[in-house]
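User: I'll paste a sequence; please echo it back and then give the predicted structure.

Assistant: Echoing your sequence first, then the prediction.
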Amino acid sequence: MYVVDFLRSRGVGFETFLHVPASSATKLARISHVAGRSVAKTVLVQTGMAPVLAVLPATLRIDLDRLAGALGLAPGSVRLATSEEIDEIFQDCEPGTIPAFGRLYGIRTVVEKSLSGDGVVVLPTNTRHLALKMSFHDYERLEEPLRAAFGSPIAHAPTAAANRKHRRRAG
């Protein structure tokens, strides 16, 4: 079932918007002019027992050992799903897309606790060019995810301006 149809069937308020296909949630945040901490990225992981959908802000990367701990599993027991495993589960989605609603696919969902809040969240849908905005409260009410801390900051390369500033101080 498509995410939009699911939300309509539940009477939940949301807004869809078209965008240029983005190769990452960070790029989606940039092109949609939304703070990265409010844009969700979705990652399918395998636990050995069952797949789990991890949802976290675009500004963080997944820490698999912390996620394992949050799921009550041993470090090293969680791995990223392969593209074949993703395609097998998300058959109604365009390649490279994973909706933020594991419930639609019979998959447990865990949300990075820093994504939660009273605000609006941008979520991926079944296609690479459509995203949606909805209240995080409504998302959490529908999805009933486990909330846990499993993200770590993405290390960015220094910007050109930062490099110039550093050279001036060093020289």
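The beta strands are 15-18, 40-46, 51-57, 60-62, 79-80, 108-112, 120-124, 130-135, 146-148, 151-153. The domain at 3-170 is CATH 3.90.960.10 (YbaK protein).
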